[in-house]
């Protein structure tokens, strides 16, 4: 089994899981690159997994389904043929079992997919968790988003995270704005920029690195609380309050 990606639009990742000629696609926002890849490599599409219902993550589904009418579409909401609710364990095919976590907040339909292979855990997080950041809270349900991120941050530290967009450098710049003295962030900026220059992508990233460098996963950290309080001129009352203020600062960064 291998995990790869196709790029779409300016910064979307369409992740795929492949084993020999079998393919599973995550969040095909565009059909063109996916169908090209399938046809060129003579692949069998076994399933589509959707992390949420934004057009840049599912806009290609209709075209792909007209090409492969029997392909199951997993996700929350009406576009899915196989509707999910979170906390499921699905045998997708003989070589792959997928676990789900409901992660509402960015949208009401957030689902993350966990895949295990050769002792490694991989998670596809859509627009819930980004490298060194998180998605906007379009639902205005900050409690739900905070809970979703808290749940993800409790995964094992060697879990590899595959977000839906390449936002790493901008997110790290924001993380540095919040924590100018954090050496792990400074180190990571250099590493990720180098990776981007060489490979054109900075992902995946381990949860352990995220826990050190993602301010949205560290909202109970004294440094972050003090910094947010200083920047906003307001008292930070709790981890959730810190998260809400951080998200607001990031929206305007
Ligand atoms: Zn989205």
Could you list some keywords that capture this structure?
6-stranded mixed β-sheet; 253 residues; binds zinc ion; 9 helices; alpha/beta; Metallo-beta-lactamase, Chain A
At a glance:
With 253 residues, this protein is of the alpha/beta class. The chain contains 9 helices and 14 strands. The longest helix is centred in the C-terminal third of the chain and has 17 residues, at 183-199.
Topology:
Layout: E1 2-8, E2 12-19, E3 22-26, H1 31-40, E4 44-49, H2 55-58, H3 61-67, E5 73-75, E6 82-83, E7 89-93, E8 96-102, E9 111-117, E10 120-126, E11 129-130, E12 133-134, H4 142-153, E13 160-163, H5 168-178, H6 183-199, E14 205-206, H7 207-213, H8 222-232, H9 239-251
Parallel strand pairs: 3-4, 4-5, 5-6, 10-13
Antiparallel strand pairs: 1-2, 2-3, 7-8, 8-9, 9-10, 11-12, 13-14
For the record, give the distance between the C-alpha atoms at the N and C termini, rounded to a whole number. Answer: 39 Å
**Strand order in the largest sheet:** 1-2-3-4-5-6
The poorly predicted ranges are: none
* Count of helical stretches: 9
Number of domains: 1
Nearest-integer average pLDDT: 97
Superfamily (CATH H level) name: Ribonuclease Z/Hydroxyacylglutathione hydrolase-like
Q: Helix content range of the residues, please?
A: 25-40%
Q: Provide the gyration radius in Å.
A: 18 Å
State the CATH architecture.
Answer: 4-Layer Sandwich
Can you walk through the features of this model?
This protein is of the alpha/beta class and 253 residues long. The chain has one domain: Ribonuclease Z/Hydroxyacylglutathione hydrolase-like (Metallo-beta-lactamase, Chain A, 4-Layer Sandwich). The chain contains nine helices and 14 strands. The strands form three sheets. A six-stranded mixed β-sheet has the order 1-2-3-4-5-6, covered by helices on one side. A six-stranded mixed β-sheet has the order 7-8-9-10-13-14. Helix 1 links the parallel strand 3 and strand 4. Helix 5 packs antiparallel against helix 6 and helix 8 packs across helix 9. The longest helix has 17 residues. The structure holds zinc ion (ZN).
């Amino acid at each position: 089994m291998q995990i790869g990606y196709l790029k779409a639009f300016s910064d979307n990742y369409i992740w795929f899981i492949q084993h020999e000629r079998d393919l599973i696609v995550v969040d095909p926002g565009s059909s063109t690159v996916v169908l090209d890849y399938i046809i060129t490599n003579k692949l069998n599409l076994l399933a589509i997994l959707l992390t949420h219902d934004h057009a840049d993550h599912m806009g290609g589904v209709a075209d792909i389904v007209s090409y492969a009418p029997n392909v199951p579409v997993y996700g929350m909401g009406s576009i899915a043929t196989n509707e999910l609710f979170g906390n499921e364990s699905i045998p997708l095919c003989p070589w792959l079992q997928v676990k789900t976590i409901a992660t509402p907040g960015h949208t009401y339909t957030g689902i993350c997919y966990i895949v295990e292979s050769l002792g490694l855990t991989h998670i596809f997080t859509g627009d819930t968790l980004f490298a060194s950041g998180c998605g906007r809270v379009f639902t205005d349900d900050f409690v739900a988003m905070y809970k979703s991120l808290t749940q993800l941050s409790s995964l094992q530290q060697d879990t590899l995270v595959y977000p839906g967009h390449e936002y790493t450098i901008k997110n790290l710049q924001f993380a540095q704005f919040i924590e100018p003295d954090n050496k792990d962030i400074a180190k990571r900026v250099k590493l990720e920029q180098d990776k981007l220059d060489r490979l054109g992508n900075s992902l995946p990233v381990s949860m352990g690195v995220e826990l050190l460098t993602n301010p949205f996963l560290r909202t109970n950290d004294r440094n972050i609380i003090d910094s947010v309080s200083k920047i906003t001129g307001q008292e930070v009352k709790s981890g959730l309050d810190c998260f809400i203020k951080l998200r607001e600062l990031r929206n305007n960064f």
